[in-house]
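Crash report, auto-generated. Payload:
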Amino acid sequence: MNPTPILEVDDIHVYYGNIHALKGVSLTINKGEIVTLIGANGAGKTTTLNAISGLVPSREGQVRLRGETISGVASHLIVGRGIVQVPEGRRMFARLTVEENLRMGGYTLTRAADVQAGIDRAFEMFPRLKERRTQVAGTLSGGEQQMLAIGRALMAGPEVLLLDEPSMGLAPVLVDFVFDTISRLHAEGTTILLVEQNARMALQIADRGYVIETGMIVLSDLAANLRENDTVRKAYLGIV
Amino acid sequence: MTVTSAGMPATGTAPSATGSAPAMPVSFQRRVIRTGLLGAVIALYLCMVGIVPIFNARPLVQGVISLGQAALFLSLFATGFVATRRVAESSSRLIADGAIAGGLSGVALSALVLVGSMVDVRAFMPNASPVLYGILTFNLGTVGFWIPMALGAVLGGLAGAVGLASPRLRRSLFVGLISLFALGLFAGLIRTPMLALPVDELARLLFASDGLTLIGAVVVLVLSVGLHHLQRTRRLDRQFAALPPSQRRRIQIPLIALAAVFVLVLPQGLGSFFAQVIAIVALYVMMGLGLNITLGLAGLLDLGFVAFFAVGAYTVGLLTSTAEFGIAQWPFWAAVPVAVIVAMVFGAFLGLPILSIRGDYLAIATMGFGEIIRILAGSDLMKPLLGGPRGIINIPKPIEVPPDSLLAGPNQIYYIALIGAALIAFVAWRLRASRLGRAWIAIREDEDVAEAIGINLIQTKILAYMLGAAFAGLGGAVFAALVGSIFASSIQLMVSINVASLIIVGGMGSIPGVIVGAIFLIGLPELFREFSEYRFLFYGIALIAMMQLRPEGLLPSRIVRREFQHGGGDEPPESSTSPLAL
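Recovered output after restart:
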């Protein structure tokens, strides 16, 4: 099978004031893949995602979606092009109900029927959310909130889903559930860029992985190879 | 006998048996004394700031009790009530405790009379005058110094005795007292239209020119207590909510029609003063609905609202005035759309530089903008254009009618403001359900996520400022026509604060809330013009009380209510099925 790159990040540099946060990050994600980006705190994982989705500007380099340059495009337009980010820490609209949150996720859809279809799909995927349909999102458990965050992002019908630390702060049983969900999305054909601190889990479900350190990609390989890599084992898997 | 027994229904004001008093009689006694002293401070304060003497001029029940006396009595009674609340004690003990607390407050007033008769303290306390002592002693002077003491003890004891009544009876008594106060205060407002109708005899029987008559007071008290106490059924709103939708509509439609008729005939026969008051209320409703879009929907706290109000008012002034600074002498109706558009342009101008400012900083920045406009309007720079402090005068009324017509004077402004408010309410209601409305709500809830789900922050925010400004501009245009002139001094920061406060008091994001808030914060103070010195005192008390008792506002929107209740689902029964609902 000849992989077709759907998202290409080409040597992007991001600055926060004088701080050079990303020093030339390049990644390629092929259609239908799960690619994981692992790294320590402050290595630039979230910044990379934000640069892709246009939430922070990149001073140099290019992001291409299906070969088209999207760096410089306003973030609200990028959502419409098919890249949706699930923000770190879930970030519900805490005072709105589950259904209203989903509806918000479909903001870029212009037809009411599409919105309803998206909500139905989310409920089908997470029956738990359907039970909690009229409940206020802020009162959901952490696991349910993560379901809602993913469900909300899927509303816009993304081709590429950017997941930022979806397992953060969840109980182990829920971590398993979240990773199952990601595998399901993958099986349904969604392309996923997964940022994780839980490198063990991430490398288990991913096809390929990148390791980022202080704003630079230091390693990239098939996930299976990374699992066996000495440096990765020491630094991120805690195996001596 | 104890106050709380297990068999009593748990109503809102039912005392809980959680008071630690029975176990620790010492701290209980201390509580009574502490409450009594606090009551003394409040009673003295009421006298010293002049509320009692000034309010004494207005009768509550003609020839029986004045508003000032009522306020004083109420403070003594409340002292006794608070001191005995939430404690389970024997009946004699309750009455005694109430009497002690009330009496203590009274002692302070007695001491005031005694000290005042010996030393003239008026030099530094201008309100400690013989007039005040006369009120306190029922005109007996120093000889009657014991009267406040005795009165405090009696009222406090009475309040303690009220604690013995069943919670329902107690509620009924409170409803009765509140009705008495309300009707006494608004006697003039009710009497005037009644006199114009065939019920004028009844009006004369129940209401005096100011306050109730003695017969009226008895009737009000008996009727309200009786009706409330006899009403055995559930609360009406719950009953209503339980009905099927078709039946609900059958009740709703006539009620709405009735309300519409009431609103339409309201200014007729009220006299020009009341008509002016309700016109101002309608004007503020209009502006409140406008700010409700910026603040209530999009969550942008705009304290410079008066700027757009000024832009609207000056635009109408310039375009319609027949005096010095008028440039076009257009009719009002042609000037209004221009005023709205100009205000919107200003809204966009203000919006651009403050796009990335959030929260408190936004409030300060917008407040600054309001001040800039105010100072500019009164400045020498703009004097050749806007007239400076002399302002623009001779702004004609929108509709020229003979003075005895239904549309004369402030009445037509009332109707115009009403139409404006209805229009704005409609637009706000449609907007809320629209895509733009959802974008505003998303920004209010979480700006970063809003951006991540594909909302154009810049465009959405600018539109919020522009629409809010449009409605404020419309408010200003109507204001200019109401007053017939516009001066730099009309552009007060207080206008912005009033509009923001009425939204907070009414309930953020809620259209009925804005109406209720405007009636409370704008209408009531206008009716009590003679007490205008105390306007801000009551304003402050009302805002503090609101924040303590009902922070979500009087008639909050669904979302705001949820936030304050940490609610589960929309419907209470549903939330009980979900274990996660708090």
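Post-recovery validation: The first helix of chain B runs from residue 25 to 48.
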